[in-house]
Specification:
The protein is built from twelve helices and 18 strands. It is α/β, with parallel strands linked by helices. The strands form five sheets. The chain has an eight-stranded mixed β-sheet with strand order 4-3-7-1-12-13-2-14, with helices on both faces.
């Protein structure tokens, strides 16, 4: 296990960092990003005081590769983490190593999904350098029976009540116990709103029986039939309405948990020296084109929330919305930069620290997401290819077609754009994903 630098620079003036990452919480389905029905009052209020990145994307619409890239600032081809249950290499340099070296107390809570194991605890050597760790390797199939492990890998602890509440309770206890003589980097990684969606009744009841919006690209007749480990889970099967009622309820429940965390920072006098970031590993199709879960290059699947509040630059001017392209491979470089710490030399992501304080945007011309297909986007246009990156299969103009209903590959007016994006994708693959 990584140890903090015993003789760090004086760090009491450096900001704390609190990073919250739910699982499978797409930006499309959040009030912060304009959804007319999903209620997220605490996140809405937070966004009014933070930098809200409207064009943030995951590097992969799948849990493990997205998380490997987040913590390292590297793309999946560089981490070697391309599929669920791939293990992050033991020599990988992560955000935790950088904060440890600077004298921070690094703390990890919740789902890890990077040690290559099953639904059990994570060995210290597989924890990506986090000094304190209380979590689990992969998903639980019941949010009301959350199992969590500390250093004793033979002893599982059951989180009381709903997993979101139980994990939040642990986080609040840790915040109460944090030392005040050095800063902390704490990350809370919720399982919700990943299926099966089973929020407490008070949150599910907000959506049950209501007339819910059906987006133009959603098939309300679609049925969710998820498979894990090659086995179908019939107990998760539900129609579109049954799914979104639960999914929306989980999101609103998470919003309440987020508010509890912010209230605790206020109570402890930590709010004015804690950077708070909220994101997700990937999105959720929720019926788009008849699909559920993630795996696709649809906006519902790859577009993620990215909200960052730095009290040093937002205290007087309030929040703002940014149209800069932000990949989750950029989050580690951004947080290190905001804290005045050196970048990881192994990272390929770029820092958006200036944009967080409403300064100049980063010159990111495009971003890439990949899994069974490859997608390159520039903020307006999105080109999707097959797995090899060689054969274009879809070209979307998001400005005129936000629901992605019309492929422009055969439109002569877009021929030059498609060619340019394909050339950029080829160059990116040569640099970051040669295999």
């Amino acid at each position: 296990m990584a140890k903090p630098n015993p003789n760090p620079d004086p760090s009491s003036d450096r900001p704390n960092v609190l990073l919250i990452q739910p699982d499978q919480m797409g930006a499309t389905w959040m009030g912060v990003y304009g959804h007319p029905e999903v209620q997220t009052p605490r996140l809405d209020a937070f966004a009014r005081q933070a930098a809200t990145f409207e064009r943030a994307y995951t590097v992969s619409p799948l849990c493990t590769p997205a998380r490997g890239s987040l913590w390292t600032g590297q793309y999946p081809g560089e981490t070697g983490v391309r599929r669920n249950h791939d293990a992050l290499r033991g020599d990988a340099r992560t955000v935790a190593h950088a904060f440890n070296h600077a004298g921070y107390d690094t703390m990890y809570l919740g789902k890890w999904h990077l040690s290559g194991g099953g639904n059990r605890g994570v060995k210290p050597e597989d924890r990506g350098g986090f000094a304190r760790f209380y979590g689990w390797e992969a998903f639980h199939v019941d949010h009301w029976d959350g199992q969590i492990w500390g250093d004793d890998l033979d002893t599982a602890h059951t989180l009381p009540g709903h997993e979101t509440d139980g994990l939040t309770d642990v986080a609040l206890d840790w915040l109460d116990e944090t030392r005040r003589d050095r800063p902390f980097f704490m990350t809370i990684n919720y399982q919700a709103p990943h299926a099966p969606c089973s929020p407490p009744d008070q949150y599910a009841d907000l959506y049950r029986g209501r007339e819910l919006q059906v987006r133009p690209n959603v098939d309300p007749r679609a049925t969710m039939r998820p498979q894990y480990g090659g086995e179908t889970r019939p107990e998760w099967n539900t129609d579109w309405r049954g799914f979104v009622e639960g999914y929306y309820g989980e999101i609103t429940h998470l919003d309440t948990a987020f508010g509890r965390l912010l209230d605790t920072l206020d109570r402890l006098g930590l709010a004015d020296r804690t950077i708070v970031a909220f994101t997700s590993d990937h999105g959720e199709n929720a019926g788009a084109f008849g699909r559920f879960e993630k795996h696709t290059m649809n906006e519902e699947s790859i577009r993620i929330p990215m909200l960052i509040h730095d009290p040093r630059c937002h205290a007087d001017r309030g929040g703002f919305r940014r149209s800069d392209l932000f990949s989750n491979v950029d989050l580690t470089p951004t947080l290190l930069d905001l804290c005045g710490l050196p970048a990881l030399t192994t990272a390929s992501g770029v820092s958006h620290a200036a944009a967080v304080c409403n300064g100049p945007e980063v010159a990111r011309q495009h971003g890439v997401s990949l899994l069974a297909a490859v997608c390159i986007y520039d903020g307006r246009m999105k080109l999707e290819t097959d797995r090899t990156g060689q054969t274009p299969v879809r070209l979307i103009d998001l400005d005129t077609d936000p629901y992605e209903m019309n492929c422009r590959l055969d439109d002569p007016a877009y021929e030059g754009i498609a060619h340019q994006l394909h050339e950029r994708l080829t160059a990116w693959r040569d640099a970051h994903d040669p295999d």
